[in-house]
Design goal:
Order of helices and strands of chain B: HHEHHEEEEHEHHHHEH
Distance between the termini of chain B: 80 Å
Largest interface: A-B, 34 and 29 residues
Helix content of chain B: 40-55%
Number of helices of chain B: 10
Oligomer: heterodimer
Radius of gyration of chain B: 22 Å
Distance between the termini of chain A: 24 Å
Number of domains of chain A: 1
Strand order of the largest sheet of chain B: 1-2-3-4-5
Strand content of chain A: under 5%
Order of helices and strands of chain A: HHHHHHHHEEHH
Strand content of chain B: 5-15%
Structural class of chain A: mainly alpha
Structural class of chain B: alpha+beta
Number of domains of chain B: 2
Number of strands of chain B: 7
Radius of gyration of chain A: 18 Å
Shape of chain B: elongated
Largest sheet of chain A: 2 strands, antiparallel
Strand order of the largest sheet of chain A: 1-2
Helix content of chain A: 55-70%
Largest sheet of chain B: 5 strands, antiparallel
Chain lengths: 204, 336
């Protein structure tokens, strides 16, 4: 792998250590949002930005945080960014905010954000932490967007709400429901793991 | 100072909380006006949408709203015929024999029940939701339409809709003001495909039924969930009446057993049932027989049975309100 720490972090988060198919984090949102590509895009952008900024902030104040309240401080920082995003969307992009509804608030439950804060930002300087958060979000986005393309295309016959499939196409209801995301995630994991060197068997 | 000492931990936590929460409060306060303005504007736009009035942007919506819509309670003098003052309403609900609030159960049990529920200020049927006027009248192409705002429990939170209908019980349109249903599932009630179904839909006895796939025959969950809300409404309407206890109780208990779409009627009957505990059942039976007709059906959202059923309850409540309004305004209701 690359020597450059910036490149290494990116490759790690997007491929070698992808949050979805290697770390198996953030699965709840993977199941929930991916039946519509537009919701998926906004959700994943929200997660990427929140992860980046909260990792940055936590890394910035990491030396001040007492051990006892480490995690609760991380939660405060993360929820701070999530609520800020929610408020700003509501004030300046009300249409988008209405579309997203409860999902913005749900960004906070994404395990990836806390995971990066705890695993990376606590031990690294601010800027590389920011980068780490951002690329983690990108790794997450990549997989989710792929799933959403499959699900929306087969479940609704459309992409980004625009009808793609011919009228004779019968939508697969299962693709709208959460279970289909399980199948697709599993298939992606299978594919990703078989692409890698046999050394990285395992997983959970 | 020792970073792990209690004092440091407490001070640190306090500062962190104050700092972040303070910034949030600031941002929230500085955007509150914008948010409120947008909410008000989009509510007006929603009224126009429900009435099928086209507009380009929110500014034009605001103008159209002010020129075309008449708030019903704000202009009591312009209503035709005897302007029903709130207290006089029970008397105007025609065939109802009794004038005293408690004695209403006449022949048109469900109607009278509804009217009574609405009595304390007719247009305030939904007064427990919002005190401001929630009902508007608009004349489009010579036809008079009524639009009401109505809230009710959905699967994850309150669903607020605006429903417009004409005096003969044909729905003009529907608009979702706010909802927190599962995006991509129940949240699809906000999509045109679903809302379009309501346009021009004939109601049966001022009711619609939402069909939702194979589970249509076993809607116990959503119906049972939504009913407490309606039940409360009925109870609130009758609390001032001496001796309501039994009536309300009977109505409420009988409702869950009846078919889902009945909830509105059942409750309405409950409100009026003060002296005749049997009314609830009668009204329910009437509505059940109406289920066989093909008009008045809306296709629910695939995979969102409970949201679909909640919508049915809320729409029927709104229809009930409109019907009561029309009764109060001059008794032009076509009794289906």
């Amino acid at each position: 792998m690359a020597k450059n720490p910036i490149l290494k972090t990116a490759v790690d988060n997007i491929w070698t250590n992808n949050p979805i198919f290697i770390q198996i984090l953030g699965i709840c949102s993977t199941l929930a949002v991916t039946n519509s590509m537009r919701n998926t895009l906004v959700m994943t952008v929200g997660v990427a930005l929140t992860t980046a900024f909260s990792s940055f902030t936590i890394s910035l104040i990491k030396n001040l945080i007492p051990k006892k309240v480490r995690m609760i401080t991380q939660v405060i920082v993360i929820s701070f960014y999530v609520i800020i995003i929610d408020i700003l969307l509501r004030a300046y992009l009300p249409e988008v905010s209405k579309q997203l509804g409860p999902y913005v608030g749900l960004i906070i439950t994404n395990c990836i954000i806390m995971g990066r804060a705890e695993a990376f930002a606590q031990a690294n300087p601010p800027f590389i932490s920011f980068w780490d958060g951002l690329t983690s979000g990108l790794g997450y986005m990549m997989v989710l967007v792929f799933i959403s393309v499959v699900r929306e295309l087969l479940g609704f016959g459309s992409l980004m709400g625009v009808r793609i499939m011919p009228d004779s196409f019968t939508p697969w209801t299962i693709m709208i429901m959460a279970p289909s995301a399980f199948f697709i995630v599993a298939m992606i994991m299978w594919w990703a793991k078989s692409m890698k060197k046999p050394a990285s068997s395992g997983g959970k | 100072m020792n970073k792990d000492s209690i004092v440091y931990t407490v001070i640190f936590s306090a500062i962190v909380c104050l700092l972040f929460v303070g910034i949030l409060a600031l941002v929230q306060a500085s955007t509150a006006e914008r948010v409120a303005a947008y909410a008000e504007a989009s509510r007006k736009a929603a009224f126009l949408n429900s009435l099928g009035i086209a507009f380009k942007d929110l500014n034009e919506a605001e103008q159209l709203f002010n020129t075309m819509l008449t708030p019903i309670m704000a202009t009591p003098g312009t209503e035709k015929g005897t302007t029903p003052s709130p207290e006089a309403t029970p008397g105007t609900a025609k065939s109802v024999s009794g004038t005293a609030k408690g004695a209403t159960p006449g022949t048109e049990k469900s109607v009278s029940g509804t009217a009574k529920g609405a009595t304390p200020g007719t247009a305030q049927t939904t007064a427990h939701d919002k005190q401001s006027s929630v009902a508007y009248r608009a004349v489009i192409d010579g036809i008079e339409y009524f639009a009401v705002e109505q809230s009710g429990p959905g699967l994850w939170g309150t669903i607020t809709i605006i429903l417009a209908a004409s005096a003969d019980g044909v729905i003009r349109g529907i608009e979702i003001v706010s909802q927190n249903e599962t995006p991509g599932l129940g949240g699809r009630i906000d999509e045109p495909v679903f809302k379009k179904q309501f346009v021009g839909k004939k109601t049966i006895n001022w009711k619609i039924t939402v069909r939702s796939g194979s589970e249509a025959s076993a809607p116990q969950n959503s119906a049972a969930n939504a009913i407490p809300g309606t039940g409360t409404g009925a109870a609130a309407g009758t609390t001032s009446t001496p001796g309501t206890g039994t009536g309300a109780a009977t109505g409420t208990t009988s409702t869950p057993g009846t078919t889902k779409s009945v909830s509105g009627t059942g409750t309405g009957a409950a409100a009026g049932a003060t002296s005749t505990p049997g009314t609830g059942t009668v009204a329910a039976a009437g509505a059940t027989s109406a289920l066989g007709v093909s008009d008045g059906y809306i296709d629910g959202i695939t995979g969102a049975t409970r949201t679909s059923k909640s919508m049915e309850v809320i729409v029927n409540k709104a229809l009930e309100t409109i019907r009561a309004l029309i009764d109060a305004a001059g008794g032009t209701t076509v009794n289906g």
